[in-house]
Amino acid sequence: MKETALLIAAYLIGSIPTGLLLAKAWGVDIRATGSGNIGATNVYRTVGRKLGILTLLGDCLKGLLPVLVAQWLGFPLAIVAAVALAAFLGHVYTVFLGFKGGKGVATALGVFLGISPLSILCAFAVFALVLYRSSYVSLASITAAAVVPIIITIAEGKIEVIAMSVVVAAIVIYRHKENIRRLRAGTENRFRA
Predict the structure, then answer these.
(1) Angle 77-92/159-175 helices, nearest 10 degrees?
(2) Which residue in 121, 120, 139, 123 sits closest to 131, CA to CA?
């Protein structure tokens, strides 16, 4: 019963559309500007740096807080991993927007920060390197997502976390399918700080 309540709460927390709410507070419907995505990159590009950073932090916390609560309550690792996945799915398929949400990168960051900080440290290094060399946030995000399950497999070796990381990485990459098409066509937008 407690596990079910925690999973539902994690999903609902993950479902809070941080970028949409912050942009609306400034009179902008983020779904109708830029790429139309509710994530931090689109908020950064269309509304500004401060709101972009706040969106990143908010989306990250949506993944981190449910994981920390599950760990604090002493749930087994399988439940912690399920809670992490629920929070992530809440962001990507939010009930508040007809199950259409963000791409999941920042929420995945929060999830893995709580479960495997080492994987985030390595993934961030990969992200930063790819972004520096290419100036494509999407390519950096896809590459970092692909690296996380490998690092978790090597560093953690726990099947529950490995399985969850593979699902999260696959969804992050899938949610970037339009970006992948634009990257292949040479029409993807580069990131300018």
Answers:
(1) 10
(2) 139
Residue keyed to tokens 């593979």 = 166
Phi/psi zone of residue 157: left (φ > 0), alpha (ψ -120 to 50 degrees), beta?
Answer: left
pLDDT by residue for the chain (193 residues), tens digit each? Answer: 788 999 999 999 999 999 999 999 888 899 888 888 898 888 998 888 999 999 999 999 999 999 999 999 999 999 999 999 999 999 999 999 999 999 999 999 999 999 999 999 999 999 999 999 999 989 999 999 999 999 999 988 899 999 999 999 999 999 999 999 999 998 888 877 5
Encoding tokens for residue 113? 């920060």
- The whole model's pTM is what? 0.93
Query: What contacts 134, CB < 8 A, 6 or more positions away?
Result: 140, 190
Burial class (CB in 10 A: 0-12, 13-18, 19+), 138: buried
